[in-house]
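Re-run with default settings, no changes from the original entry. Doing this only to confirm the output is reproducible before filing.
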Amino acid sequence: MHHYLSWVGTLCRGAAATLIARLWPGHTVRDVDRRLAACPARQQAMVTGGVMLVLLLLSLFAAQFGWIGILLFWLGVILIAR
């Protein structure tokens, strides 16, 4: 179970680092991931959880507009992460 949670945490941290790097000009994903990995575990969890919470809230807002809203939400996420 610990191995699985560690893997999920690393995956979420990578997704958060990708979104932060794309919205923070001048920084690469690798740079943001290294900075995040250097932080204490509690701070890593707070940053990663914050990014995931913002995504959740944005998706719930987009859901208010039906399937077109969700489509635009995912399109926005893909464009930012790309």
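The first helix runs from residue 2 to 23. The chain has a mean pLDDT of 90.
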